[in-house]
Amino acid sequence: MAPVLRFCAALALALLPAAAAQDVAGGCHQYTNRSCEECLKNVTCLWCASSGRCVEYPVRRILPPTDLCELRSARWGVCWVNFEALIIAMSVVGGTVLITLGVCCCCCCKKKSQKQADKDDERAAREREKRRVRQEERRAEMKSRHDEIRRKYGLFKEENPYAKFDN
Predict the structure, then answer these.
(1) How far apart are CA 58 and CA 18, in angstroms?
(2) What is the pTM of this model?
(3) Residue 46 contacts residue 74 (beta carbons within 8 Å)
(4) Which residues on adjacent β-strands are paired with residue 47?
(5) What counts of helices (H) and strands (E) characterise the chain?
(6) 62 burial type by CB count under 10 A (0-12 exposed, 13-18 middle, 19+ buried)
(7) Fewer CB within 10 Å: N-end or C-end of the chain?
(8) Whether 82 contacts 49, CB under 8 Å
(9) If residue 55 lies in a helix (H) or strand (E), which one and from where to where?
(10) How many CB atoms lie within 10 A of CB 59?
């Protein structure tokens, strides 16, 4: 984690002087009626393709107001993407990421519940087996007690007295 923080701090320190130099170099209006590429070299500038103006990007607002420049004519960052296409592309990418995360979460929860169900089934089978063994033990114990009582009172069923004798 520390190397990542160091890298981010170094990147911020490296970019701050460059951004300050761009602001000191002059406003965006000096690039009006020039090319889009020249205007967008300064990251604080917005190029309006319909009017050929280079204006300061309104940082207080997310999207530039329509009185400044229409979204289909506004360019920022790169000249070949307008704001409408950028908004649509970012929405599609964002929606895809959210849907992917949702599907992953559902799959993980399903696997977890299946594992839990398997564990529950195994636990129930073990408990059933234990109950069956205890029941057999009790049944054998009751049979032996009943046999003792039958012997005591002479009611014990002996082997068939009329069985064949083997000589």
Answers:
(1) 20
(2) 0.46
(3) yes
(4) 54, 75
(5) 3, 4
(6) exposed
(7) C
(8) yes
(9) strand 53-56
(10) 7
Tokens of 75: 């360019």
Joined together, the tokens standing for residue 11 give: 């990147």
What are 78's strand-pairing partners?
76
Report the amino acid identity of residue 71: L
The answer to whether residues 25 and 42 touch, using CB atoms and an 8 Å cutoff, is: yes
Which residues, at least 6 apart from 27, have a Cβ–Cβ distance to it below 8 Å?
Answer: 56
pLDDT, one tens digit per residue, over 109-154 is 877 777 777 788 888 999 999 999 999 999 999 999 998 888 888 7
Six token digits for residue 114: 């299946």
Torsion sign over Cα 87, 92, 94, 98: positive
Find the distance separating the first CA and the last CA of the chain, reported in whole Å: 94
Whose CA is closest to 156, among 141, 165, 164, 145?
145
